[in-house]
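Technical annex, item 7. During the second reporting period the consortium partners agreed on a shared format for inverse folding records so that results from different sites could be compared directly. Each record opens with the tokenized structure and is followed by the designed sequence. A conforming record, contributed by the partner at site C, is shown below for reference.
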């Protein structure tokens, strides 16, 4: 027995030795196989799926979002859970059991880095002979969709034959950022195999673990729970992207048939808001669709009947069946007619609820089908991701990220330069919520590694409603600074001293404030006057008071900012108009956009206005602003999906500024949303009510009103064909001044300049734009510029003379270019219209008219390669105005005589209208010496010189206008003696027919009535007087007939006689006789009539009506 026992022990030892030898042999075989696999894999670029995504819970406050996220995580239901403040997120892992219908969700523990896991899985798959096929979709294509092979062409300039071959760019690895040590170069002499990013210490335990597993790679989800209160909507755009699936939650009780109409409508509006928001923030450029969305109805413990669920589903279909996002919604039961269009869940039961389990399966199924989940990521990218995850700092410089990427082997995608590839990597990680990176000039230098710690938590402490969310930081701030906390709570004004309480445990205050300022969450207040503070203050637009306590001031004009997705706006702009009902049904105004627009307006107001922001009437949905003296109001109309812009002064130029600012705000937060300005088809003057209908005419765009009027075309509004003239008249209040042709009844400023090449017209036109944007005495400055106002087909001389007569201030440009022609003027030279303007001004001043003059003076232009950057003095040398001719231009004097007639009196003498004397009269006024304006040289010196010159002139002219009487200028001549001024707009002066009193009377009747009137001479004269003059006059008939002929466009008989007396040898004498014949108006005419009667009758006695001569 002992022998047998010894034999058994010996046999067991032999078997053990054989097993050891076999195991050693197998291990050697495995090691040899592994070495061969690593060697083969090291010769090719390695990629692996990056199995990460997000589940984002959104919806109205108190709808059960947080309880639902807890239920999916397997956490216990908590009744009366507090509201979510801002954004909360936690990382979960989704693991699917093989061949089982239900999946298990458990908290994810990061035991191994992404690179380590990817390497182990690649080796495991190779050893098992089930490696993934090559040629899968790259993750780069998800963030930069383009045709294959186009990446290099889009990011690298083609080589030029003159420049030679393209040289390789120096590696960023050779130039690490300051403070970062240069890593040692990899040891290329070692024979150790590599996998992806440099030498690998392969985790064999992880390889064996994957060999024993099911082979199914888990999906990792990050749960994002967004605050549902409106104050948090300004944060949402920072985190919404196409990388995720969205769960839009609502309380089913709000959509029951027993709920009030107001409750139902509010719930549906919130659902629509989130469908719109998800679409515009997550729309894929290549596919044209947004992220997958699931509607989730909570509170099934209360609303548990199947019939109620079906009614709610039907209501959702009726309301949103035509919404662009509806085809991409995920149904609860995709197959069968009994499927619902939402998931009715019971959060109190957690995963025990059948609908909750179906919701989990649907989320897994939809996420796994997404391109960005199935796409392959280079292992070098995963190495960079792991290093970022290990960095505990809240943020880093982008240059540091470039260095890290270079250290791990980037660029790894063929054809992409390092910086572009790193930006694509940052875009993927930012879309998944791991980092924050915005490729904008002001933010591109910063990479936020921990969005929750860096921005979300600090920002939500400021933007949350202090009445709804009471934080310990709020309590501490109120204890230390009660008055400042009350200002923050009541007006949304945040004082710098409150940061020490709100952010006591948060570093990087300055970077955080800069980030929030750039994105409009904070608006710095520039303190002025009594409101100035020693500590900086900020406005928080999302915390403005709900209602304005100041009565609404009547608007002079109203326009509307309309918003829509790109396809919808393209359709509206294609026809240039849209029905109000269409804006309300298909437009989209995100709730977070209006505070952003208010923030832009606040910043602009502080740049241009002297009023303190704290003194302005600012509320959450209605705010009064002032850009300089351009006062306007922004009113949010959520029911109409638009914002009303009320102009409180006549200043249409501010509309373009508001539109540009709104588009800039959208570009920062909702890039796929479009905006335009529109005005009601009635002209824009609407009562202050939100209940309105009709059609809106878009202002901007190829078919917009501004372009249509500029091209002098008409417009079809519904069934009405509106001509260009009618468009100009109806919509004058929203048209820029340069689009309004024709004369106004009066002007603030008349710009007088020479049509020539060079600086004169450039400065004058820029000055006209600048002045048109100013406001004086509550009214936009009216500027006459001939190229804007004069119409084709009219007597332009007559029109600019009319404009000058009715202008408060003449602004003549007196330069060498303007005076060049005048130096050669002779008495019989053709009329110089610029000199005519200046002479007419001098004559009007001599007649006692209180008119202002501000001359713009310079000599020659100093032109360089960068344009005109300086000018010489007007005085001295060949440009000196003292060298101008002393005599008048007779053609100019004749035109003034024609316009003013007898009112000119003795002011038409050679001495008064001499060229030298007229220019000297203008230069006697305090003007602007442009040669005193200096700018530094450089490529932009010419543009800076003109800009500075226009700014200086604008300030001077506006300051002078503010000192004048706000009333319009009065006509200098009585109507009966000033025919040219009293003419209708379309009538030019014509000489009266020669003939006797009855013949003239008959022709006047035909002009006014169309036919000759019958009856006594007295009755006929009185009818004409009542029609033309508004009342019957007394006195001799010829004088009364002269008064009638003047307004209908004829010269009076006395003027006609003087005109006939003009001859080449008697020009001066005729001018004197004309002036004398028209002096004192009716008295001179009366004397002429008496002399005529005496000559015809042979006596001075008055004659009867029937005996009046016909000649």
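Designed sequence (site C submission):
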């Amino acid at each position: 027995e002992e022998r047998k026992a010894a034999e058994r022990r010996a046999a067991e030892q032999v078997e053990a030795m054989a097993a050891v030898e076999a195991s050693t042999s197998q291990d050697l075989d495995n090691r040899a196989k592994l070495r061969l696999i690593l060697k083969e894999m090291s010769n090719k670029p390695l990629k692996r799926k990056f199995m990460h995504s997000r589940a984002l819970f959104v919806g109205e406050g108190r709808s059960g979002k947080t309880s639902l996220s807890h239920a999916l995580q397997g956490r216990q239901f908590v009744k009366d859970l507090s509201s979510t403040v801002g954004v909360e997120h936690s990382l979960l892992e989704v693991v699917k059991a093989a061949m089982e219908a239900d999946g298990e969700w458990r908290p994810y523990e990061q035991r191994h880095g992404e690179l380590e896991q990817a390497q182990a899985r690649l080796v495991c798959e190779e050893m098992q002979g089930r490696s993934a096929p090559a040629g899968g979709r790259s993750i780069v294509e998800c963030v930069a969709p383009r045709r294959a092979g186009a990446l290099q062409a889009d990011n690298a300039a083609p080589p030029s034959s003159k420049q030679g071959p393209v040289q390789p760019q120096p590696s960023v690895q050779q130039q690490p950022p300051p403070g970062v040590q240069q890593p040692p170069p990899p040891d290329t002499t070692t024979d150790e195999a590599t996998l992806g990013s440099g030498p690998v210490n392969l985790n064999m335990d992880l390889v064996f673990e994957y060999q024993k597993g099911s082979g199914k790679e888990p999906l990792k989800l990050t749960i994002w729970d967004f605050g549902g209160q409106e104050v948090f909507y300004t944060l949402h755009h920072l985190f919404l992207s196409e990388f995720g699936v969205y769960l839009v939650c609502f309380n089913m009780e709000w959509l029951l048939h027993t709920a009030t109409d107001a409750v139902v409508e509010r719930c549906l509006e919130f659902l629509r808001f989130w469908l719109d928001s998800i679409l515009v923030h997550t729309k894929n450029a290549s596919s044209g669709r947004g992220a997958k969305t699931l509607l989730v109805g909570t509170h099934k413990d209360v609303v548990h009947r199947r019939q109620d669920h079906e009614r709610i589903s039907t209501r959702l279909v009726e309301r949103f069946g035509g919404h662009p996002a509806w085809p991409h919604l995920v149904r609860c039961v995709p197959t069968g007619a009994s499927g619902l269009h939402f998931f009715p869940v019971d959060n109190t039961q957690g995963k025990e609820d059948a609908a909750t389990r179906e919701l989990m399966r649907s989320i897994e199924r939809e996420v796994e089908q997404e391109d960005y989940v199935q796409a392959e990521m280079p292992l070098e990218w995963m190495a960079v991701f792991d290093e970022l995850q290990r960095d505990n700092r809240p943020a880093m410089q982008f240059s540091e990220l470039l260095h890290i990427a270079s250290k791990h082997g980037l660029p790894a995608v063929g054809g992409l330069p390092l910086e572009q590839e790193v930006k694509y990597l940052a875009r993927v990680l930012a879309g998944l919520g791991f980092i924050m990176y915005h490729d904008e000039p002001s933010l591109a230098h910063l990479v936020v590694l921990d969005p929750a710690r860096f921005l979300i938590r600090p920002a939500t402490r400021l933007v949350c409603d202090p009445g709804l969310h009471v934080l310990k930081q709020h309590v501490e701030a109120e204890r230390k600074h009660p008055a400042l906390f009350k200002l923050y709570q009541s007006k949304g004004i945040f004082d710098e001293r409150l940061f020490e309480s709100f952010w006591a445990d948060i570093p990087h205050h300055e970077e955080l404030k800069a980030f929030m300022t750039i994105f409009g969450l904070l608006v710095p207040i520039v303190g002025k006057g009594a409101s100035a503070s020693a500590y900086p203050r900020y406005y928080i637009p999302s915390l403005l008071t709900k209602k304005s306590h100041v009565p609404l001031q009547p608007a002079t004009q109203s326009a509307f900012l309309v918003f829509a997705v790109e396809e919808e706006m393209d359709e509206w702009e294609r026809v240039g108009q849209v029905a109000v009902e269409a804006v309300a049904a298909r437009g989209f105004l995100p709730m977070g956009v209006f505070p952003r627009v208010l923030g832009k307006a606040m910043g602009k107001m502080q740049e241009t206005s002297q009023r303190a922001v704290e003194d302005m009437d600012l509320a959450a949905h209605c705010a009064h602003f002032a850009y300089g003296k351009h006062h306007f109001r922004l009113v949010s109309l959520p029911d109409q999906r638009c914002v009303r812009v009320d102009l409180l002064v006549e200043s249409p130029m501010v509309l373009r500024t508001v539109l540009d600012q709104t588009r800039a705000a959208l570009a920062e937060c909702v890039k796929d949303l479009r905006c335009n300005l529109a005005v009601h088809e009635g002209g824009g003057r609407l009562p202050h009510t939100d209940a309105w209908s009709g059609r809106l005419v878009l202002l901007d765009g190829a078919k917009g009103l501004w372009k249509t009027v500029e091209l002098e075309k008409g417009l079809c509004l519904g069934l009405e064909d509106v001509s260009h003239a009618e468009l100009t008249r109806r919509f004058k209040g929203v048209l820029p001044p340069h689009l309004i042709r024709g004369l106004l009844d009066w002007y603030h400023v008349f710009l007088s300049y020479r049509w020539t090449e060079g600086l004169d017209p450039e400065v004058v036109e820029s000055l006209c734009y600048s002045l048109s944007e100013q406001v004086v005495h509550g009214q936009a400055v009216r500027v006459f510029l001939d190229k804007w106002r004069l119409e084709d087909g009219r007597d332009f001389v007559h029109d600019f003379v009319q404009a000058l007569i009715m202008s408060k201030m003449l602004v003549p440009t007196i330069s060498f270019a303007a005076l060049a022609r005048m130096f050669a003027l002779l008495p019989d030279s053709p009329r110089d219209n610029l000199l005519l303007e200046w002479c007419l001004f001098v004559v009007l001043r001599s007649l006692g008219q209180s008119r202002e003059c501000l001359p713009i003076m310079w000599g020659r232009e100093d032109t360089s390669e960068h344009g005109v950057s300086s000018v010489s003095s007007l005085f001295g040398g060949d440009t000196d105005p003292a060298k101008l001719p002393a005599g008048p231009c007779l053609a100019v004097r004749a035109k003034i005589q024609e316009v003013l007639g007898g009112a000119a009196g003795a002011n038409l003498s050679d001495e008064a209208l001499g060229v030298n004397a007229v220019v000297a009269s203008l230069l006697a006024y305090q003007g602007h010496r442009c040669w005193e304006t200096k700018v530094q040289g450089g490529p932009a010196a010419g543009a800076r010189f003109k800009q500075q010159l226009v700014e200086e002139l604008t300030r001077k002219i506006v300051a002078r206008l503010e000192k004048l009487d706000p009333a319009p200028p009065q006509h200098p001549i009585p109507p009966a003696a000033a025919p040219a001024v009293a003419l209708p707009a379309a009538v030019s002066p014509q000489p009266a027919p020669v003939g006797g009193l009855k013949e003239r009377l008959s022709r006047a009747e035909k002009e006014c009535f169309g036919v000759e009137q019958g009856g006594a001479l007295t009755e006929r004269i009185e009818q004409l007087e009542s029609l033309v003059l508004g009342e019957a006059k007394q006195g001799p008939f010829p004088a009364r007939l002269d008064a009638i002929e003047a307004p209908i466009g004829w010269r009076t008989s006395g003027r006609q006689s003087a005109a006939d007396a003009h001859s080449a040898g008697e020009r001066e004498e005729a001018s004197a006789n004309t002036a004398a014949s028209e002096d004192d108006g009716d008295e001179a005419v009366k004397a002429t009539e008496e002399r005529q009667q005496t000559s015809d009758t042979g006596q001075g006695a008055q004659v009867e009506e029937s005996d009046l001569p016909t000649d």
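DSSP finds 40 helices and 33 strands in the chain. The first helix runs from residue 2 to 41. All partners now use this format for quarterly exchanges.
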